[in-house]
Specification:
Helix content of chain A: 40-55%
Number of helices of chain A: 13
Structural class of chain A: alpha/beta
Order of helices and strands of chain A: EHEHEHEHEHEEHEHEHHHHHH
Distance between the termini of chain A: 56 Å
Shape of chain A: elongated
CATH superfamily of the largest domain in chain A: NAD(P)-binding Rossmann-like Domain
Low-confidence stretches of chain A: none
CATH topology of the largest domain in chain A: Rossmann fold
Oligomer: homodimer
Mean pLDDT of chain A: 96
Largest interface: A-B, 64 and 64 residues
Number of domains of chain A: 2
Radius of gyration of chain A: 21 Å
Largest sheet of chain A: 6 strands, parallel
Strand content of chain A: 5-15%
CATH class of the largest domain in chain A: Alpha Beta
Strand order of the largest sheet of chain A: 3-2-1-4-5-6
């Protein structure tokens, strides 16, 4: 399949390389050229402009930073008009379901096909080809893209026929992930203020009904002063803001997601936005009895 | 060891029976006589009054409903005065750390020894002898009681030398459990309002970074209209109220625990206090777009 891959950053590059390895003809474009050499070495064809990348494509895969950036690429810069009739756009940026639905409608109105296909699993999953891909879109479109999607992610889920259903699934996932990190910090903070042995506390919690994947993964880094950054505080500011935006649009109150967002926001405001997301615990230390650690 | 066991309800009876089976001489007392026959059949000696149960005991195990009830038994009814000098009181009721500490100090002042030893694992764990027991108290006291504790719970944790540290550990555990159930309901509610296939959503979440023990355990029951009651909504009203009470005493803000408590309270106020705790999802259905299910 002739595929245009737009956005060759930390996630996009390994995803594009897996498409090349699966036998697809992949043309790539990114304003930032730092990954050009690696992309070309893997067999990709770099295009110096977006129009050149998409004008022959059967499938245009957007792995840009946000739904706004995807919309801008498609309609403000108007590269939707550069695509062949009936080309399929696959949107893998993390965005709200309503934004995905709006962009999807606009693409359909121009005679293009579209899948809403956010991913989960991070750079590690992208490199290993083990991403989860949560897809919203018509069954025939899903079937058309299936082999390409499967070469990028080993966990492929078709959530429903509406563009936006994939993004809803990702939103639900991120709501849980964000709250689980924040509450792990909240619980650890209570234990630390009470003078308990925190490593022992985490050992006990990890084998109890209180366990979560995030507690097991982020818990140990909460006990470090300067842990390595696996995913930053500001990523959850972004992802929980999408949850909040979508809830506001639906006029839904989501008390736990809202409270968790405040803690990530506060940690970011304290200057820890680029720190590992486990460091949301610093927001609790600031909140209660000063920054005592 | 001569053990008095006070409170032979759903949890206390199987705990006392395990002590008898381990070779201890167990005298039992409960105002409610419904489990008397079962206790005696297992080899326990029923005492018609509390004084008779405790006056020869080396160890008095309190498995009553609350810290207030324990305090009332010990000091209002004044059964602390009925115990031999240097007897050890083991408090296994769920209570706040400060209540455990206060009661512990009062016992110590009267020449008695004390362990704060709340349990986790429910009736199933009590019957199997696999309870987790989280203990606060002096090392020598812990060592004295160890074999008795081990015959009741296979997961024994000495959290620290202060009476109250066991209860803090239980509080931290219940904080996480309560928030994890509430956020599982919040996320399921978002997915149900978006029209996703909820069984598929739970399958995806269960293998992702969004997974938690509670989501796996309570998630399926959230999708049932009248699930069997494993643990009731009102249990988490109680346990998260202990978290809130302890946080208020410490002048600590705990935003997620506070928000989760509101949802369990609201579910209880809707008339669902005795329903399975998975039904906290009904509070979300009441909150957003009416009770649409």
């Amino acid at each position: 399949m002739r595929i245009a891959f737009i956005g060759l950053g930390a996630m996009g590059l390994p995803m594009a390389i897996r498409l090349i390895q699966a036998g697809h003809a992949v043309t790539g474009f990114d304003l930032n050229t730092r990954n050009r050499a690696a992309f070309e070495a893997a067999g990709g064809q770099w295009s110096p402009d977006a129009k050149g990348a998409v004008q022959e494509a059967e499938l245009v895969w957007l792995m840009v930073v946000s739904g706004d950036q995807a919309h801008d690429f498609l309609f403000t810069q108007n590269h939707a008009a550069d695509m062949p009739a009936n080309a399929m756009v696959v949107m893998s940026c993390t965005q709200s379901a309503s934004k995905a639905a709006n962009t999807g409608e606009a693409l359909t109105a121009r005679g293009l096909r579209v899948l809403d296909a956010p991913v989960s699993g991070g750079v590690v999953g992208a490199e290993a080809g083990t991403l989860a891909i949560m897809v919203g879109g018509a069954q025939t479109d899903f079937d058309f893209a299936r082999s390409a999607l499967e070469s990028v992610g080993s966990n492929l889920f078709h959530m429903g026929v509406m563009c936006g259903m994939g993004s809803t699934m990702k939103t639900v996932n991120q709501l849980l992930c964000g709250v689980h990190i924040a509450v792990a910090a909240e619980a650890t903070h209570v234990a630390e203020n009470a003078g308990l042995d925190l490593a022992q506390v985490h050992r006990i919690l990890s084998v109890s009904a209180a366990s979560s994947w995030m507690l097991g993964n982020r818990g140990p880094r909460m006990l470090q002063d300067e842990p390595p950054v696996t995913s930053a505080v500001d990523i959850f500011v972004k992802d929980l803001s999408i949850v909040a935006e979508e809830a506001r649009r639906a006029k839904s109150g989501l008390p736990l997601a809202a409270a968790a967002l405040q803690m990530f926001l506060a940690a970011s405001g304290q200057g820890h936005g680029l720190a590992d997301d486990s460091q949301v615990i610093r927001a609790y230390r600031g909140l209660n009895r000063g920054d005592q650690k």
